[in-house]
Design brief:
Layout: H1 2-7, H2 16-33, H3 40-62
Helix pairs in contact: 2-3
């Protein structure tokens, strides 16, 4: 559905909730696996990686916009 909307001129598609869920779930999993760790430098890295992967997925597989920066 989002791919269809993107190809038919919808200018804004909000994916913020998906990105926040990717970050939050990854951090929660980190704390479950490492309850003794609390340094943000340790748990934010995996969270940022999850967000980056979600953005790449959305651009490539959902919105069909990967590689269109020059368009």
């Amino acid at each position: 559905m989002l791919n269809y909307a993107s190809k038919h001129g919808v200018a804004k598609i909000n994916i913020d909730t998906d990105l926040r869920l990717a970050m939050t779930s990854t951090i929660r999993e980190f704390f479950i696996e490492h309850p003794e760790k609390f340094d943000p430098r340790e748990y934010m890295g995996p969270g940022r990686t999850a967000v980056k992967e979600m953005v790449m997925h959305k651009m490539r597989d959902v919105l069909g916009t990967a590689g269109h920066a020059d368009d």
